[in-house]
Design a protein that fits this description.
The protein contains three helices and two strands, in the order βααβα. The chain has 78 residues and is mostly helical. The chain is globular.
Length: 78
C-alpha cells in the first residue's frame, strides 16, 4: 500500500536530511516526524524520501496533520 502525494518539480535535494530520516528508521523507529519553520522543504523532503523507499516497505501512508485525522485513519483502515 502506497499513498503519498506526488513529487513536485524543482525540488532541491537535501541528502543530509534524507540520511537522517533513514538513520532513524534503521535504528528502529516506526515513525519519523519532520518539523521546522515554514518554507524550508520539510514536506518535499518527506515526499522524496517516501517515493525513494516505495519498494522497500510494505506500507507507506501519508497522513496530513492539517486535515481531518479521523477521516484519514478510516481511509487507511479500509
Amino acid at each position: 500500500m502506497f499513498y503519498v502525494p506526488s513529487k513536485e518539480g524543482g525540488f532541491i535535494e537535501r541528502n543530509h536530511l534524507i540520511h537522517i530520516i533513514q538513520k532513524h528508521f534503521e535504528d528502529g523507529s516506526l515513525l519519523v516526524a519532520v518539523s521546522g519553520i515554514g518554507g524550508i522543504g520539510k514536506t518535499e523532503t518527506a515526499i522524496q524520501y517516501a517515493h525513494s523507499k516505495k519498494d522497500h516497505y510494505d506500507i507507506i501512508w501519508w497522513f496530513d496533520a492539517s486535515k481531518n485525522m479521523s477521516k484519514q485513519i478510516k481511509e487507511f483502515i479500509h
